[in-house]
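TASK: fixed-backbone design
INPUT:
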């Protein structure tokens, strides 16, 4: 076990062999975490005690956690190699239903805010599939991307979906009709992420071309191009109040931007290798980032001051996220572990 000044690391969760990666999801109330193991097992843990309370089996290949449903009653589980996304009852561990098609290889999914639908991303047929979350019945197949799709996200009202792909585009879809509304063009290389602003009026995208772009979600117009990163940008998202944007890049920096003017407010330096992910705390006062230097760093979102460097991973940190109450930070790494950190003292 390692020691982090002023921090209390919780028991590490071993979720697979090195280089296999890991995935996890917090329950909406922040009390539980679901962890996917590379042997096809899902385990649920109580964060407060670090206790394992439930395991789900049934998959025969590597699985990935998609998300808890908004009410915390169900978990969407992805099988990246075989397809067959499953919806599990989070209390009993029983499979409720599957959705998608055998050849779709759906491996990333997101619930709509009301929990009624799921958008699944597949990399074989370049299609985003929307299914009824209760029954698994297909609702729409969103076709238009011409290369690998990296991500899809619902708008806060659940009426639209934004997707990002290797074809250099972001596409905005009508989730009710399954129709393409806008194709957002402006990036010169693959787009890694597309996320809505908290009020749903804008989309921010991160690309391998080194740019972060802000788009009008209703008109499909490019509003701002945020330039300054010197290498590909793997992650960008809005602050909880929608006034700022944080981005993480392979240039080893985290940058904070004014979401209205596009001005760069802060450049956060301290990582010694590229950055894969960044996340605001629920109150917007802190930013956590993870990178290929195997470290998680926590920053003051207002001043840009480095508050803590969390060490313990032995591989790239690919995902960071806060629990809903902001007291726990989770980090997932290619070393096959998920680490939980008690950060309420920061």
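OUTPUT:
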């Amino acid at each position: 076990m390692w020691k982090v000044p002023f921090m209390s690391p919780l028991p590490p969760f071993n979720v697979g062999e090195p280089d296999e990666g890991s995935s996890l999801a917090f329950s909406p109330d922040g009390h539980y975490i679901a962890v996917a193991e590379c042997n096809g097992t899902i385990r649920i843990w109580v964060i407060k005690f670090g206790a394992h309370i439930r395991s789900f089996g049934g998959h025969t290949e590597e699985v990935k956690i998609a998300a808890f449903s908004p009410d915390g009653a169900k978990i969407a589980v992805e099988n990246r190699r075989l397809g067959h996304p499953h919806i599990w009852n989070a209390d009993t561990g029983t499979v409720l239903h599957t959705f998608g098609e055998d050849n779709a290889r759906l491996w990333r999914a997101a619930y709509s805010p009301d929990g009624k639908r799921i958008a699944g991303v597949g990399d074989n047929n370049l299609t985003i599939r929307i299914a009824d979350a209760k029954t698994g019945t297909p609702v729409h197949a969103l076709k238009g991307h011409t290369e690998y799709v990296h991500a899809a996200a619902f708008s806060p009202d659940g009426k639209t979906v934004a997707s990002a792909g290797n074809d250099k585009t972001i596409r905005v879809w009508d989730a009710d009709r399954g129709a393409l509304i806008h194709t957002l063009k402006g990036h010169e290389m693959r787009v890694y992420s597309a996320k809505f602003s908290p009020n749903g009026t804008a989309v921010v995208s991160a690309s391998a071309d080194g740019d972060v772009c802000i788009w009008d979600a209703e008109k499909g117009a490019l509003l701002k191009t945020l330039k300054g990163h010197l290498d590909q940008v793997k992650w960008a998202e809005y602050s909880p109040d929608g006034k700022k944007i944080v981005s993480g890049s392979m240039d080893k920096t985290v940058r904070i931007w004014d979401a209205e003017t596009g001005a760069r407010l802060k450049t956060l330096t301290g990582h010694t290798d590229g950055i894969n992910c960044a996340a605001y705390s629920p109150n917007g006062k802190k930013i956590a980032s993870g990178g290929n230097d195997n470290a998680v760093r926590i920053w003051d979102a207002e001043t840009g001051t480095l508050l803590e460097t969390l060490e313990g991973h032995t591989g790239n940190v690919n995902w960071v996220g806060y629990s809903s109450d902001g007291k726990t930070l989770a980090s997932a790494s290619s070393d096959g572990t998920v680490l939980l950190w008690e950060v309420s003292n920061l």
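COMMENT: The longest strand covers residues 179-185.
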